[in-house]
């Protein structure tokens, strides 16, 4: 049992929230950077404006500041877990059905697992001080080096915009690359 748990942990990579960035040109597309703990790679996760708002209002403020505004649904969920004698042990990122989308699995004590949206899982991890993990295979396939320069990041964003067939966004990124190159 301990060996199986150890093997499962080795197949996962611990992540931490890095930064959020917005497109300079259109201001409507956002990326969340999740950095590999102790490593040189990061996952870039596209965020919808509603997810960005949820993350900024529930992760960035300190707990005392959130409570001054009243309990959020996330705080109430954490309190309900506690009353039930359960704890959020970890949050695991999983690939969504759509290209470049992620959801999360909330892994609770007693072996319970709940599926949640990407933003909800990240918020719950921060509120409950639970670690965030991603499978090694997902990290290998989708991560970028965190030592990349701005041009490399823009090229990656361009490729992703073309994949999504968001040609307006791709055009704006291409213009930005051309300005950088002179």
Question: Strands of the largest sheet, in order across it?
Answer: 6-5-4-7-1-2-3-8
Helix content: 40-55%
Uncertain ranges: 1-7
Number of strands: 8
Distance between the termini: 59 Å
Strand content: 25-35%
Order of helices and strands: HEEEHHHEEEHEHEHH
Q: How large is the count of helical segments?
A: 8
Q: Could you characterize what this model shows?
A:
This protein starts with a helix and ends with a helix. The radius of gyration is 18 Å and the shape is globular. The model is unreliable at 1-7 (pLDDT under 50). The protein contains 8 helices and 8 strands; from the N terminus they run αβββαααβββαβαβαα. It has helices at residues 2-10, 49-58, 63-68, 73-83, 118-127, 136-142, 150-163, 167-180; strands spanning 12-22, 30-36, 41-47, 88-95, 102-108, 113-117, 132-135, 144-145. The protein has an 8-stranded mixed β-sheet. The chain has 182 residues and is of the alpha+beta class.
């Amino acid at each position: 049992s301990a060996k199986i748990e150890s093997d499962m942990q080795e197949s996962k990579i611990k992540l931490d929230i890095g930064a959020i960035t917005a497109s300079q040109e259109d201001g409507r597309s956002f990326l969340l950077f999740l950095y590999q703990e102790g490593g040189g790679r990061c996952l870039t996760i596209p965020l919808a404006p509603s997810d960005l708002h949820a993350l900024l209002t529930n992760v960035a403020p300190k707990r005392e500041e959130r409570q001054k505004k009243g309990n959020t649904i996330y705080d109430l969920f954490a309190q309900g877990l506690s009353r039930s004698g359960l704890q959020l042990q970890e949050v695991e990122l999983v690939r969504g059905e759509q290209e470049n989308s992620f959801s999360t699995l909330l892994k609770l004590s007693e072996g319970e697992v709940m599926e949640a949206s990407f933003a909800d899982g990240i918020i719950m991890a921060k509120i409950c001080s639970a670690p965030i993990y991603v499978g090694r295979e997902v990290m290998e396939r989708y991560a970028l080096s965190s030592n990349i320069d701005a041009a490399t990041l823009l090229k990656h964003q361009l490729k992703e915009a073309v994949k999504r067939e968001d040609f307006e966004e791709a055009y704006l990124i291409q213009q930005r690359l051309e300005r950088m190159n002179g």
